[in-house]
């Protein structure tokens, strides 16, 4: 594909710092570095090691791609994402970068060809699956070529207790022993202190400079809503705010995935399922549709998503409570990599708490492991129940201080707290009386019926209308009581036991019953927050809503550019975003360039893409050929 004689950036052993900037402009078509990219790139170009913690969409790839282009030799990128290597390489080739990969999906001939290119110095970047490095022949191959740097992508996979541990990553500590002079750059979007330390230790990054970027993703609007009828709530979100948009919907179970995908399809949404129970071919086909086409919604378990670098995912929705804040932030971070407004939406209810507590109790492993799971869940629950800015909470979890963001549900529609001490006492004493007077345990539903004084068949059958607590809680509705129970569980003032979700008191319940402790609860705002911009988007299904920040006259041009992009992507067999990102098309539609020179000034239009697509774009804009 790429012409081996042309090199994207001339390699320069003298490493002039301006080389990196000119590479950014020429190859990638961007004006300036973002955040710490420049310092990181300088460090690696000069031969130093780096450990980079940056959120998804922060711009990690350039941190190793540019040094690989500027330094002599081939940049070797270790990545666990075999299924995505082809797309990554295609995206680089579209920029005129000479990239290749070696992994288990290739046959011998394909591998030999890439190996020959590597040895001939005809590659700028070589992507390798970590397990390749366990094969002695790969190590010998690398010995025979010239290596510019090692980039260790998704470096958190080396962390044993993290959520994505991969044993093959442990072997990466040998890179330094075997090639002590080759700089290494490790990158991850996972940012807790613990993971950070473990990466540095396990990869022997003793002399690395650490770069910890802000983890804020200001373009993502965080919203957590009470769960009533989750599929319907989701459909409403799609219809009113994300019509025709690409998005990811996460469910906990395979059945949840199938149910939800089926429901969305039946309601006219272009949705596909993705979970580990589907055969590999179906999974690959569904992932490929999501990546390549515009506006596909993938409904998935957490098996989906790592390394998906589709820039224009407009929403990530969770229909079940994630197990940790770390996982939640990674999953939601897949929205809006292109920096455009996006939504992270989570529906959460009492049943989630009950289910997850049960799962933890029944989980394998020792007590320490269960305590760790419990602590993860508690942090997630605290995020759900907070009346403060969600973003402040999220960033605090990663050790970063911030102020109210103005772009989350609690900032947009502040939630109030109310003194729920009396309600808590009523509920806990009902649990206590059932246990003491009747030696019985029940789930939330029955206890709420008792408090509301409902003479249901089950209440009468158990003589529960004879309890002194019968009918003492009519001041709250069922939904409000469920909110109380959910929050008591979240605060550890109540616990779930056994397979039926029966409720029992905890050590701290007594403090509430004995009036030594106040209980502050969150009151759901009457009208949940919604994107301020949603009103400018057309509702209804099928037709795509107008892009948020586009002047009316530019909309038809943007649509024409998108249609051209879809056709071109299909013809070249690459994802649409490999041709140009939405943001680039949007800028073209807005500034309406009248020459190749002007087009070159648009962000995302580098030399190679200008040469390939410049004339077609100008033709589309009605500029007469020069
Ligand atoms: P990460 O790997 O950290 O998730 P990427 O490397 O995929 O992020 O970058 C996210 C998006 O930002 C990509 O679309 C990329 O092209 C774009 N980007 C990165 N750096 C810059 C920059 N300096 N100027 C403009 N766009 C950039
Ligand atoms: Zn906020």
TrEMBL record:
Comp. bias (Low complexity): 531-547
InterPro entries, alphabetized: DEAD/DEAH_box_helicase_dom (IPR011545), DNA_helicase_ATP-dep_RecQ (IPR004589), DNA_helicase_ATP-dep_RecQ_bac (IPR006293), Helicase_ATP-bd (IPR014001), Helicase_C-like (IPR001650), HRDC-like_sf (IPR010997), HRDC_dom (IPR002121), HRDC_dom_sf (IPR044876)
Enzyme Commission number: 5.6.2.4
Domain HRDC: 551-626
GO biological process assignments: DNA recombination; DNA repair; DNA replication; SOS response
Domain (Helicase ATP-binding): residue spans on this chain: 41-209
Reactions listed under catalytic activity: Couples ATP hydrolysis with the unwinding of duplex DNA by translocating in the 3'-5' direction
CC cofactor: Zn(2+); Mg(2+)
Coiled coil: none
Keywords noted in UniProt: ATP-binding, DNA damage, DNA recombination, DNA repair, DNA-binding, Helicase, Hydrolase, Isomerase, Metal-binding, Nucleotide-binding, Zinc
Disordered: annotated span: 524-547
One Gene Ontology term of the molecular function aspect: hydrolase activity
TM helices/strands, residue ranges: none
A GO cellular-component term linked to this record: cytoplasm
Annotated ranges, domain Helicase C-terminal: 230-381
Protein family membership: Belongs to the helicase family. RecQ subfamily.
Entry protein name: DNA helicase RecQ
